């Protein structure tokens, strides 16, 4: 009997200890819940003023609607992250910074997307440097780069182009064209992106048959040097062929094609790059 009583007392002590631990945890989490509940419903977190900066294309009303914010709303009724993601769903919005102070003032700073490309479907689809369709317009913008050869029939404003795996080499080419080291940004008027080859047209009307998506850096560097030479020498060029032969071919208007490294060709009928540029291209190739 004595042993049974001892065992029973041990079980009772163990049960009471577990019960005390459980009770403490319950009280602790209840207090936390009540504090959070009080905070969420306190007038301290009531929205009194909303300042939105950085918007030109985006309407203030659209930002407030997406953020679900208005006077007398409780700021923490919806998580800050959810509000930011909702605002970012606006096609023109690239980034958002959202802050709130105890005085009830909400500051929303927005970085808008800028159109960089345009693709004509029925209207012109404006596309930013992240390849997101941000707007449509009936009028062509002469300051934007035209992209041809892409099927965007099933895409709408807010969607992204070139998202499939097979388009990554095209994405790389477009990104490289914006790279300052090639000095081509602003010099290319349009780009045709076909499955295996691409062509450009410069702002001066020179057609560039770029060829395949291989050796992009090398070919863009050569193109940069060729365009610089054309500008410096005043040559009247209509066509540059990057892959037709071992070396690029430059064709002047009303002349025949000649290899730019063929020094035996008469200067009256061919395009000859000066020795400094020629050596730069050779060095890059090596």
In brief:
The chain has 286 residues and is of the alpha/beta class.
Plain-language structure description:
The protein is an alpha/beta fold and 286 residues long. The protein folds into two domains: 46-112, membrane protein fhac (Ubiquitin-like (UB roll)); 115-252, Rossmann fold. It has helices at residues 2-40, 60-67, 80-88, 168-177, 216-233, 275-285; strands spanning 49-53, 93-100, 105-112, 115-120, 124-128, 133-137, 145-148, 188-193, 198-202, 207-211, 237-241, 249-252, 258-259. The chain has a ten-stranded mixed β-sheet with strand order 6-5-4-7-8-9-10-11-12-13, covered by helices on one side. Strands 1-3-2 form a three-stranded mixed β-sheet, with helices on one face. Strand 9 and strand 10 (207-211) form a beta hairpin. The longest helix is centred in the N-terminal third of the chain and has 39 residues, at 2-40. The relative contact order is 0.06.
User: What string gives the helices and strands in order?
Assistant: HEHHEEEEEEHEEEHEEEH
Tell me the major beta sheet. Answer: 10 strands, mixed
Distance between the termini: 98 Å
The CATH architecture classification of the largest domain is 3-Layer(aba) Sandwich
Helix content: 25-40%
Q: For the record, what CATH class of the largest domain applies?
A: Alpha Beta
Mean pLDDT: 85
Q: What's the alpha carbon Rg, rounded to whole Å?
A: 32 Å
Count of separate structural domains? 2
Quaternary status: single chain
Strand content is 15-25%
Strand order of the largest sheet: 6-5-4-7-8-9-10-11-12-13
Low-confidence stretches: 257-275
Q: Any idea of the CATH topology of the largest domain?
A: Rossmann fold
Number of strands: 13
Write down the overall geometry.
Answer: elongated
The helix tally amounts to 6
| SSE class | alpha/beta
């Amino acid at each position: 009997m004595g042993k049974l009583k001892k065992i029973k007392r041990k079980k009772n002590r163990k049960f009471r200890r577990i019960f005390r631990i459980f009770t403490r945890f319950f009280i602790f989490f209840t207090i936390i819940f009540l504090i959070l509940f009080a905070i969420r419903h306190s007038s301290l977190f009531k929205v009194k003023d909303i300042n939105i900066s950085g918007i030109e294309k985006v309407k203030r009303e659209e930002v407030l609607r997406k953020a679900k914010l208005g006077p007398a709303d409780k700021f923490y009724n919806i998580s800050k992250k959810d509000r930011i993601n909702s605002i970012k769903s606006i096609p023109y919005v690239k980034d958002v910074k959202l802050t709130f102070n105890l005085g009830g003032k909400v500051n929303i700073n927005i970085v808008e997307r800028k159109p960089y490309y345009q693709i004509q479907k029925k209207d012109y689809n404006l596309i930013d440097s992240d390849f997101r369709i941000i707007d449509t317009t009936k009028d062509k913008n002469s300051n934007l780069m035209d992209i041809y050869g892409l099927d965007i029939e099933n895409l709408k404003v807010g969607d992204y182009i070139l998202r499939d795996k097979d388009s990554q080499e095209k994405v790389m080419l477009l990104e490289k064209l914006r790279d300052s080291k090639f000095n081509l940004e602003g010099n290319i008027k349009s780009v045709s992106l076909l499955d295996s080859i691409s062509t450009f047209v410069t702002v001066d009307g020179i057609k560039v048959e770029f060829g395949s998506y291989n050796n992009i850096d090398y070919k863009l560097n050569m193109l940069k040097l060729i365009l610089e030479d054309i500008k410096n020498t005043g040559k009247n060029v209509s066509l540059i062929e990057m892959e037709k032969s071992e070396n690029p071919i430059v064709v002047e208007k009303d002349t025949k094609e000649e290899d730019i490294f063929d020094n035996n060709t008469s200067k009256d009928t061919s395009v000859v790059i000066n020795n400094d540029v020629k050596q730069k291209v050779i060095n890059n190739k090596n």
